Amino acid sequence: MAARMTGMPGGNLTRATLDTLGRAIVTGEYDERPFPTEAEIGKTHGISRSVTREAVKMLTAKGLVSARPRQGTVVRPAAAWNLFDPDVLHWLLDRKFSVDLLRQFNQLRVAIEPEAAALAAVAADAEDQARIAEGLARMAAAERGEDDPLDSDIDFHVAILLATKNPFYAQFRETVATALNTSIRFTNTIVGRSASVEQHAAVAEAIAAHDPVAARAAMRALIGDVLDLIEDRGEG
Q1: Are 38 and 56 in contact (CB under 8 A)?
Q2: Pairing of strands 72-75, 65-68
């Protein structure tokens, strides 16, 4: 936490300060000690009061800190954090690996993505179908060592969220991408198996056939398989 951040443009400096402070909060550096004052942050990192104030304002918007009369800025309990904020999600992943967190991510996915697949089967246009097919083709290429398995899998799932034509589902893309990032690394690296192209193809085919029932079931089976792997690991 003592690194100085001079020499960066103003916006990058604010972002770097936000990232340093946010990661420190989420990973527990302030569990046993008070959050520093703006003056202390500025002195430690060699930054201006305006940069410090903007970074703290952003932390407040993410639910990580609050300003209290006569108490200054304090870290809020984890239950108050905005877990749908992409930064907060990424910082959470900097904690020690947690099977519980992985399970919770995928429990959220199974509540969102099967219905998204069903909606996509009804609403997807030709461009959406092409984007989903491209994601699937990239996954097949990744299986042959010709593409990135993580990026291709994320692109496939995000394409389905966008194909719902529902802006609320579309805004889950960062959450789903972060959950996938964790899940894929878990299943590929720890469990020793890659994503099933066949299972993803079943989802894509049901969407292409405009069959919401089959699309929902195929996506539920896909994520359910991940949850089963997580449970097996948790018991192991």
Answers
A1: yes
A2: antiparallel
CA distance 195 to 219: 13
Distance CA 177, CA 155 (A): 8
pLDDT category at 129 given cuts 50, 70, 90 is very high
Q: Give the phi and the psi of residue 66 in degrees, each rounded to 5.
A: -145, 155
Neighbours of 130 (CB within 10 A): 12
Q: What is the dihedral of CA 49, 52, 54, 59, to 10 degrees?
A: -150
Predicted confidence (pLDDT) at residue 61 exceeds the cutoff of 70: yes
Which residue's entry shows tokens 């959450």? 175
Q: What is the mean pLDDT of residues 25-39?
A: 92
Whether 17 and 55 have beta carbons less than 8 Å apart is answered as yes
Using an 8 Å Cβ cutoff, are 53 and 38 in contact?
A: yes
Strands (DSSP E) found in the chain = 65-68, 72-75
Confidence of residue 80 (pLDDT cuts 50, 70, 90): very high
User: Nearest 5°: CA angle at 127, between 140 and 123?
Assistant: 105
Tokens of 9: 């443009």
Measured between alpha carbons, how far is 24 from 30 in angstroms, rounded to an integer? 7
Shortest CA distance to 175 belongs to which of 116, 98, 234? 116
Q: What is the pTM of this model?
A: 0.79
Higher pLDDT, 20 or 96: 20
For residue range 163-200, what is the model confidence (pLDDT) as tens digits? 999 999 998 988 888 878 877 777 766 555 566 899 99
